[in-house]
Amino acid sequence: MRTLAALVLSAVLINPAFAGGMAEPVMEEEIETQTAAGSRAGILVPILALILIGLAMSNGDDDTGGGGGEIITGD
To answer: Cystine design at 41: which of 10, 21, 36, 55 (Cβ 3.0–4.6 Å)?
Structure first.
């Protein structure tokens, strides 16, 4: 009777240790990002910036007599 009680007690105490089992871990898939399709995509912004800077600089060089640094005094 004593050995039966010891076996039942050991079975009750040991059983929860094996409840989870040794299942393989589930790994999530890696997310892959796609790069730009064209090779010109990286050069488009600098070219547009140079065009805009050139337009802004040429806009102030107008020789129509509109002033551009003349100082007018009240005399």
So the answer is: 36
DSSP secondary structure string for all residues of the chain = -HHHHHHHHHHHHHGGGGSS--PPPPPPPPPPPPPPSSTTTTTHHHHHHHHHHHHHHHHT---SS--SSPPPP--
- Separation CA 53–CA 59 (nearest Å): 10
Backbone torsions φ then ψ of 63, nearest 5 degrees: -95, 40
Whether 4 has a pLDDT exceeding 90, the answer reads no
Dihedral pair phi/psi, residue 6, rounded to 5°: -70, -40
pLDDT tens string 6-58: 888 877 777 655 556 667 778 888 888 876 666 666 788 889 999 999 888 88
